[in-house]
């Protein structure tokens, strides 16, 4: 028994150290994977444990297998969020811990603005997921964790069909999630196919979020040797890559500044973060926040901008998690891009 307890503590310390940069409220931050329990509940996972090397008795999860990552996501959705989830073959499989970091960051932004406080706010929150894909991950997490309402928007037939199927499988979430075809919008027909086509005429939203197509070409999209989370061309590639996609969102947000409180997006390249931040400065956007999402060796960045948040409110610390288990808040540093601007940009 003592040996088992010692081993458990070693695993716990190693896990916490490796995932210390996760959001403090992320359910996976201080909780190692219970592989034995998960395989007992989900026998399909056992097939994805492979020897660490040929002939070895030691095994590890096959992160390089698309089928393995889908099976794991399916198990985690059910065990931790009570969500029945499936994914058509080839579509992008989300890494739940990383996506949860983004959802909790949205929560921080809403608390900063005084819009929403979990357990204390009756004001409805409506999020727009721009490009929900077949996995519909943000709507599922946002409704399951916080009870927010979501509009999950896409322009691909396969993605829309799959997302609607997932929502239909979860009657407890169905009243909170609308899957919307943006191609029906007049703005899409006019070529404004990102934010403008996501909202109905006169519709308001608390926030938008987006996991944009990262790549400009199919060849560029095939250069991830570490893991296999899949992804169709529609999900992974767009003309001009993520930088052009996000800058289009920024320009369209100028027309929606009174209808959305926080515009946000994730980006996969730091140079995109810098370029978009520069554009937001040039446009004199008053509220601007950036952050980094870290999951294992994977780094992504978040950008949020608001026309409703003033200069001083945007400089406030986002969250008070000093009492969270094992948390050590990184000190907020002045952003170097502020040398030529008085606008606030904080890295949380």
As residue ranges, the low-confidence spans are 320-348
Number of strands: 10
Order of helices and strands: HHEEHHEHEHEHEHHHEHEEE
Give me the number of helical elements: 11
Describe this structure in words.
This protein is an alpha/beta fold. The chain contains eleven helices and ten strands. The chain has helices at 2-18, 35-41, 66-81, 96-112, 137-146, 157-168, 186-189, 218-221, 233-236, 241-253, 270-282, and strands spanning 49-51, 59-61, 126-130, 149-154, 177-181, 205-210, 260-267, 287-295, 298-306, 345-347. Strands 5-4-3-6-7-9-8-10 form an eight-stranded mixed sheet, with helices on both faces. Strand 3, helix 5 (137-146) and strand 4 form a beta-alpha-beta unit. Helix 4 (96-112) crosses helix 5 and helix 10 runs parallel beside helix 11.
Describe the secondary structure blueprint for this structure.
Layout: H1 2-18, H2 35-41, E1 49-51, E2 59-61, H3 66-81, H4 96-112, E3 126-130, H5 137-146, E4 149-154, H6 157-168, E5 177-181, H7 186-189, E6 205-210, H8 218-221, H9 233-236, H10 241-253, E7 260-267, H11 270-282, E8 287-295, E9 298-306, E10 345-347
Parallel strand pairs: 3-4, 3-6, 4-5, 6-7, 8-10
Antiparallel strand pairs: 1-2, 7-9, 8-9
Helix pairs in contact: 4-5, 10-11
């Amino acid at each position: 028994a003592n040996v088992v307890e010692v081993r458990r503590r070693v695993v716990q310390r190693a896990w916490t150290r490796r995932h210390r940069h996760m959001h403090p409220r992320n359910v996976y931050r201080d909780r190692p994977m219970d592989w034995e329990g998960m395989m007992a509940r989900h026998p399909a996972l056992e097939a994805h444990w492979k020897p660490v090397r040929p002939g070895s008795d030691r095994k590890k999860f096959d992160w390089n297998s698309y089928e393995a990552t889908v099976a794991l996501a399916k198990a985690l959705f059910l065990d931790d969020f009570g969500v029945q989830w499936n994914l058509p073959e080839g579509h992008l499989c989300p890494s739940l811990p990383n996506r949860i970091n983004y959802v909790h960051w949205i929560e921080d932004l809403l608390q900063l603005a005084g819009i929403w406080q979990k357990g204390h706010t009756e004001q409805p929150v409506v999020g727009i997921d721009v490009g929900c894909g077949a996995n519909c991950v943000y709507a599922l997490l946002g409704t399951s964790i916080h009870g927010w309402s979501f509009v999950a928007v896409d322009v691909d037939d396969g993605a829309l069909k799959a997302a609607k199927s997932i929502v239909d499988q979860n009657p407890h979430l169905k009243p909170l999630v609308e899957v919307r075809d943006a191609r029906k919008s007049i703005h899409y027909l006019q070529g404004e196919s990102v934010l403008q086509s996501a909202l109905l005429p006169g519709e308001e939203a608390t926030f938008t979020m987006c996991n944009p197509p990262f790549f400009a070409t199919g060849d560029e999209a095939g250069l991830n040797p570490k893991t296999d989370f899949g992804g169709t061309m529609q999900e992974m590639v767009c003309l001009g890559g993520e930088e052009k996609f996000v800058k289009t969102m920024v320009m369209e947000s100028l027309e929606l500044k009174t209808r959305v409180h926080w515009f946000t997006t994730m980006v996969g390249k730091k140079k995109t973060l810098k370029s978009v931040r520069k554009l937001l400065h040039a446009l004199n956007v008053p509220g601007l926040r950036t952050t980094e999402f870290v999951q294992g060796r994977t780094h992504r960045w978040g950008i949020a901008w608001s026309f409703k948040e003033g200069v001083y409110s945007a400089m406030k610390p986002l969250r008070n998690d000093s009492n969270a288990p094992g948390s050590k808040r990184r000190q907020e540093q002045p952003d170097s891009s502020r040398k030529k601007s008085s606008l606030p940009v904080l890295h949380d």
